[in-house]
Specification:
Immunoglobulin-like; 2 domains; 7-stranded mixed beta sheet; 4-stranded antiparallel beta sheet; 1 helix; globular; signal; Pili assembly chaperone N-terminal domain-containing protein
């Protein structure tokens, strides 16, 4: 038997696609806190059993780093801005009754250190103890594949109102298809504070007339992170276009970039 893992991470997978699995998380997949040194806060992860049989779910902690190709998961305490040691889970394993739900609490205790500044973050993993059975016909003949479902809940703590995001747009390209086009933009945060902005895009023809506008998000950008935005556009006729991309994190945290590109026949 060969084992594989599927990780559901906010921004990568729609919750609706997870509901067909053995369990899902009903609480937010991104938890945000604004705390000061010495302060204590608590929250919970709500686990829901989607089956008519008992189910055991295991919880653990880790660090992560977002990259354009996908999240990189690390042992707890590895990332320089890890808050994994501040987070204490009430239990590492929980038995879910058939069709039922259980809330697992956790506590966040900020060290009494006045040098702390900006955002610190980690993840709480929730994983089915037993592999997910694969649907008949999905695996090659003679090979049994067990899939293990794992969620990653982001826990972000900002120290008061300290820190500042520094957003850059190092790469962008337009990918055209038969029915639509996609604007792919790499976005990075090299600052020391996270941002969860809404994404807005306005597309114009060369004469200034509007083609389309869209809004997506929010997207999560912790410090030392980069993601790839894929923004779907209608099929475009040959010509020259201008695009205005805005990441709106509220208040003073608004960042933008303008692009100009041409499509040939």
């Amino acid at each position: 038997m060969r084992a594989t893992k599927r990780i559901f991470f906010p921004g990568l997978v729609a919750l609706a696609s997870a509901l067909a699995q053995s369990f899902h998380i009903a609480s937010p997949l991104v938890e945000e806190f604004r705390l000061i040194p010495g302060e204590v806060a608590s929250s919970q992860v709500v686990l829901v059993n989607n089956t008519n049989a008992p189910l055991v779910v295991r919880l653990s902690q880790g660090d992560y780093r977002l990259r354009p190709e996908g999240p990189e998961f690390l042992p707890p305490g590895t990332h320089p801005r890890s808050n994994a040691s501040w987070v204490t889970l009430s239990q590492a394993e929980v038995a879910l009754p058939p069709g039922g739900q259980v809330a697992v609490s956790y506590q966040i205790r900020i060290p009494q250190d006045n040098k702390l500044s900006g955002t610190y973050f980690s993840v709480i993993f929730a994983e089915a103890a037993e592999p997910e059975p694969q649907a008949p016909g999905e695996a090659p003949v003679g090979i049994a594949i067990a899939q293990r479902l794992r969620y990653a809940v982001q826990v972000l703590v900002n120290i008061g109102n300290t820190g500042e995001p520094k957003i850059a747009f190092p790469k962008a390209r337009l990918v055209t298809g038969e029915k639509e086009a996609t604007l792919e933009v790499e976005v990075g945060n090299s600052g020391d504070r996270y941002i969860r902005p809404m994404v807005r895009l306005e597309l114009f023809r060369e004469d200034g007339s509007a083609v389309t506008s869209l809004q997506e998000g929010p997207v999560t950008l912790p410090p030392d992170s980069a993601i790839l935005l894929r923004l779907s556009l209608p099929k475009l006729a040959p010509g020259t276009y201008q695009a205005a991309l805005v990441l709106d994190g509220g208040g003073a945290f608004i960042f933008g970039k303008r692009y100009r590109f041409s499509l040939k026949e």
